[in-house]
Amino acid sequence: MSGRSAICCYSNMHCRLRRIFVLVPNIIGYSGNAVNEKQLIKHLCRDRYCFIIAFTPITKMLRLKEVRKHINELKSVLPKNTVIIPLPIPLTPMSFFVVSILIAPLIWIVDKLLRFDLLYVRLSLLAYGILLVRSLSQKTLVKLMAIMEDEDLVWRRIVKPIYSLTDRIAFSKAFIIGVNSPLLLKKLVLRRRTLPKGKVVWVPPGVDREKIEAIKRVIKSSERSKRNYYVVGFVGLLAWWQGVDILVKTVAEIKDFLDKPVKLLIVGDGPERRKIEFLCRELKVDCTITGFIKHEEALKLMKELDVLVVPSIRMSTTESNIPIKVLEAWALGVPVIATRHEIYEFIGLKNFEDIVFCEPEPEDIAHKILILLSNESLRKKIVEKSSKLVERFCYDRIVANILNTICR
Question: What's the CATH architecture for 209-392?
Answer without folding.
Answer: 3-Layer(aba) Sandwich (3.40)
